[in-house]
Design a protein that fits this description.
By secondary structure, the protein is α+β, with helices and mostly antiparallel strands. The chain has two domains: about 30-105 and about 160-325 and about 370-475, Outer membrane efflux proteins (OEP), CATH 1.20.1600; about 105-155 and about 330-360, Outer membrane efflux proteins (OEP), CATH 2.20.200. Helix content is about 60%, strand content about 10%. It is built from eleven helices and four strands, in the order H-H-H-H-E-H-E-H-H-H-H-E-E-H-H. The chain has a four-stranded antiparallel beta sheet with strand order 1-2-3-4, with no helix packed on it. The longest helix has about 70 residues, at about 370-435. The chain is elongated. The termini are far apart. The relative contact order is 0.15.
């Protein structure tokens, strides 16, 4: 008895397909996404809650020195590291285009020619030997084959794997842009720091030269005192040693000036040459007020935090992409063209016309270890991205707090050092007159001059630190890239 099997109806087929998809869903591993902690205090310590933020200032408005702004302008156009980053942005943009193309249909064209000789004692050979084409014309021996047509393939993005992959690439592109912005802020800060270091060295060199003149006069005085038997050879030698020491220090500072100039030349992408600058009014430079705003503004202003945020969002999408690999992929293939064993028959339709349409569904069933590993890796990378984001937020907040405290303490330190310099400068003349009247020893004159020189050098160093702290707080707040 023969049992007739009826074909399955469309409804039943759809039901079976849905059951299979449900089975796939139930077998897919799941892990809960880790959420980032981005809570920040309402305001900085000992700071009033105020939304005024110096990071909103463009760098050309923040820096007043014309020579410095020209250096920054040149660096933004010529710095090699920044140019490398711009190429990286292009690479990320091309990756977005590539991912976008993956979920669109692929249409290809093709043409070919073939010649084939089959054995006579084969199925194909027997057919060729006994089959005439038309009007007694025999099958060509050997057989040729010519074809031309269009072929299309398309993977239906049912699980949004391809679209999520494209979105992840877009976020990576945006992350690269923020990376470039962060590089710009660091570059501007580095140029400003080097510029202030350079003019501080100029001022220190000037102080050494002034001090050498004073010490030269003191040396002449001691020599005269020795001739009058009012001083010893020891005093003369000690003063000579002090002069030689400062002359040596003068050349050390000159070398630092050359190296700092060339550091700036490197940052702006040009050969070593003189750096135009205004060093005269350095010590009298006024410290403009820097407004820190609110800690929450760091999330929007700092490029490194925004970069970490985009990386985190991309990592989340990559988990979805990895999860979609567990589900079956649905593909469509279609082709249309012409085929004949002689070229002259290609144009005869519909005899030479060929077409095809294929749909398939393929999914992993056994041995899915590689897919699981990829999914778990994507989860681990998402957790890494969370920690990177939290680290960027915490690091940015601490940087601002440190720089605010540094600016305050440096201002107090500068005021004290300024008074110290004033007192020691006055004591130089006083000690010289006392030595001339034989009321103090030469060593007191020597120590007074040395302490005065050191205090002046420290005052210049503190002024430089103040200017650098102002630059660093601007960078820490997220200024400079806009």
């Amino acid at each position: 008895m023969i049992k007739v099997i009826k074909p399955m109806k469309h409804g039943k087929l759809l039901f079976v397909l849905l059951m299979q998809i449900g089975f796939f869903y139930s077998c897919v591993p799941t892990r809960e996404l880790k959420k980032a902690n981005k809570n920040l205090p309402d305001n900085y310590a000992q700071q009033l809650a105020d939304t005024t933020n110096s990071a909103q200032l463009k760098w050309k408005d923040f820096f007043k020195d014309e020579h410095l702004t020209k250096l920054i302008d040149t660096a933004l156009a010529n710095n090699q590291e920044l140019r490398i980053m711009m190429q990286q942005i292009d690479v990320a943009q091309n990756e977005v285009k590539a991912r976008k193309g993956e979920y669109l249909p692929f249409v290809n064209y093709g043409a070919g020619a073939e010649i084939e000789k089959v054995g006579e004692y084969t199925r194909d050979g027997a057919v060729e030997q006994n089959l005439d084409i038309k009007d007694g014309e025999e099958f060509p021996e050997p057989l040729t084959d010519y074809s031309a047509g269009l072929f299309a393939t398309w993977e239906l993005d049912v699980w949004k794997k391809l679209r999520n992959s494209k979105k992840a690439a877009t976020l990576e592109y945006l992350s690269t842009i923020e990376g470039k912005n962060f590089m710009v802020t660091r570059l501007i800060a580095e140029i400003a720091d080097s510029y202030y270091e350079l003019i501080a060295l100029d001022n220190q060199l000037g102080i050494i030269e002034q001090n050498l003149e004073l010490q030269g006069n003191a040396l002449k005085m001691v020599r005269l005192q020795k001739e009058a038997a009012r001083a010893t050879e020891l005093a003369v030698r000690r003063f000579e040693a002090e002069v030689l020491k400062n002359q040596s220090h003068k050349f050390e500072v000159k070398q630092e000036i050359v190296e700092t100039e060339n550091k700036l030349n490197f940052l702006i992408g040009r050969q070593p040459q003189h750096i135009a600058r205004n060093s005269d009014a350095f010590i009298d430079t006024q410290m403009d007020t820097v407004y820190a705003g609110l800690p929450s503004q760091l999330l929007l202003n700092r490029p490194d935090i925004r970069q970490a945020e985009f990386e985190l969002e991309a990592a989340k999408l990559n988990i979805k992409v990895a999860r979609a690999n567990f589900y079956p992929s649905i593909g469509l293939k279609a082709g249309i063209g012409l085929q004949a064993f002689k070229a002259k028959y290609l144009t005869e339709t519909p005899e030479s016309l060929l077409y095809s349409a294929v749909g398939d569904i393929v999914g992993p069933l056994i041995n899915r270890n590689a897919i699981k590993a990829e999914y778990y890796t994507a989860n681990s990378k998402q957790i890494q991205a969370v920690y990177e984001y939290e680290k960027a937020i915490l690091g940015g907040y601490i940087e601002v707090v440190n720089q605010l405290s540094k600016m305050k303490n440096l201002q107090q330190s500068y005021n004290l050092k300024e008074n110290q310099v004033k007192a020691l400068t006055e004591s130089i003349d006083l000690s010289t007159r006392l030595f001339q009247s034989a009321r103090i020893e030469y060593i007191e004159v020597l120590l007074t001059q040395r302490e005065a020189l050191e205090s002046k050098m420290e005052l210049v160093e503190t002024k430089k630190d103040q200017l650098m702290a102002r630059v660093n707080i601007y960078q820490a707040l997220g200024g400079g890239w806009n």
